[in-house]
Design a protein that fits this description.
Blueprint: E1 4-5, H1 19-28, E2 33-39, H2 43-46, H3 59-72, E3 78-86, H4 97-100, E4 106-110, E5 113-115, E6 121-123, H5 128-138, H6 143-160, E7 165-166, H7 187-205, E8 211-215, H8 217-220, H9 231-240, E9 244-247, H10 260-270, E10 274-282, E11 285-292
Parallel strand pairs: 1-2, 2-3, 3-4, 4-7, 7-8, 8-9
Antiparallel strand pairs: 5-6, 10-11
Helix pairs in contact: 6-7, 7-9, 9-10
Length: 295
């Protein structure tokens, strides 16, 4: 099975290592490819200042740096240029024209923010204490309402399109240890999983090119005891025939390939026999090939 990681962050955003360090580490570990997916800029569109997005004025520099690295490493490892683009209703989307016109190899679409009941963008992917404060103060302690808001936003992004890979689909579970704010076993959560998997299946049957990542980032950074997505959603995705690619969501070189064994175990348990490997973009569409999980 060929190794790759398309969900990779560097010191252009919230990663710790530079592009060269990440590529060299991937090459030394026998990776066939690596793709860079810096957090796309949001400041101009949202007015928000964060410590983890690529700044608007460094976007061109980032794209040029990855393209130079691709040329320098072309005889050793395939290097791809991507972005991880946020969806925030009415503010920013992977489908935005400026992202689409960058000539990227791929876009990861992710939801890190939802709109509060007051209509303000709030992150669901920050520290645990911040999440708890969000539930208490913005959602009046109603964790289920916040959970449903996340899945609704994710499905809005899926319908809006503009991305090739769905990022860390069930990241909402990260800050809900022991079911503190909503039950991961309850009917409400299961309903959201089923709606999301059914939508992805419908989009694929309509001819949409779409892949979901199984992301080991939470495991690598001890944020969750499982992959994104967990088995319940993976089983639903498998039943819908949704292709899945393995990524580490690496923020430093040491995380490249981290816990891929667990990702393979979960995929096999969910009913998958193969993951998919990104070969590049052809005629405006991503090209994927199957990789046997048993190899």
């Amino acid at each position: 099975m060929r190794l790759s990681c398309l969900h990779t962050h560097t010191n252009f955003c919230d990663g710790q290592d530079d592009i060269e360090t990440m590529i060299r580490a991937a090459w030394e570990r026998g990776f066939a490819s690596i793709g860079f997916s810096s957090h796309a800029p949001v400041a101009k569109k949202t007015g928000m200042t964060t410590g983890w997005h690529l700044s608007d004025d460094r976007l061109e520099e980032y794209c040029s740096a990855v393209r130079r690295a691709r040329h320098a490493w072309k005889d050793r490892i395939a290097v791809f240029l991507g972005l991880e683009a946020d969806y925030i209703r009415g503010l920013v989307s992977p489908a935005d024209r400026d992202f689409q016109e960058l000539g990227l190899d791929y876009i990861i679409g992710s939801v890190h923010y939802i709109l509060s009941p007051q209509g303000e963008p709030v992150t669901i992917d920050g520290p645990l204490e911040g999440f708890a404060k969000l539930v208490r103060e913005q959602f009046a302690g109603d964790g289920e309402r916040l959970m449903r808001s996340y899945w609704e936003a994710l499905r809005e992004m899926i319908r809006a399109g503009g991305f090739d890979i769905l990022g860390h689909a069930d990241v909402i579970k990260k800050n809900n240890p022991d079911g503190t704010w909503f039950s991961l076993e309850g009917g409400a959560y299961r309903e959201e999983l089923e709606k999301t998997a059914a939508l992805l299946g419908s989009e694929l049957r309509a001819g949409r090119s779409l892949t979901v990542e199984i992301n080991t980032g939470g495991l690598n950074r001890n944020k969750t005891p499982d992959t994104y997505p967990s088995l319940p959603l993976l089983r639903l995705l498998a039943a819908e025939g949704v292709p899945v690619t393995i990524s580490a969501d690496a923020h430093r070189a040491a995380e490249l390939g981290g816990r891929y064994d667990r990702a393979r175990e979960n995929l096999l348990a969910a009913g998958y026999s193969a993951s998919v490997f990104f070969e590049g973009r052809r005629a405006g569409r991503p090209l994927w090939t199957a990789e046997n999980l048993e190899d």
